[in-house]
Give the backbone structure.
Amino acid sequence: MTIWGDFGMGTRCEIIIYETNDEGEVTDKVELWKHWDGYPDYVVEMIKEFGKFARKLARSQIHWLGYAQDVASMLIVYDYEDRKKFVEQLKPKDREFFLEMGFLKPDVRPRGFMEDAEYVYALVIEKETEKKPKLTWKLYIYDIYELTEKVPNFDCRKLRNYKHKWEFETDAKLGMCKAEKVFEIALNKLAAIVT
């Protein structure tokens, strides 16, 4: 999946992984931070590739893909493995440079106190139930940079702290914030597990 330039663009983003119940209410969430390449063209493809990686990693334990904390852990591992693959394909001189610069440190990590994201991605986990016969991830993009330009003093913590329905883009308190559903992955329908 790696599509790095020299070091990519310093386009910061948050990836918030939401675990929901049958009514669509958020029951757990994990907030992650990505410093480089946070623009949609990169992150959407990264999440698609990560879905395949996570499905292979989970093997017969597909229920792991329904828990926000497990998905977050696997995303950090995926990011490390992707960076490692990029470095391994380089010529020795270039490889040494990237290693010296600490390039293998995962770029996806717990958010901590960071708050200057340009994009927020909501990865919503909908578990398999009697009503919904498949475990599904849905990804939504929020352009925070555009929002803060249009809505002065907008506090994007409203996105992080909203605890009810995951469709928080409909909440009038969020002003002009609009989300775009990008894709769905039915994780128990992905290709055969690689052994």
Observations:
- The chain is about 30% helix and 20% strand.
- Residues 68-88 form the longest helix (21 residues).
- Residues 13-189 form one domain.
- The chain has one domain: 13-189.
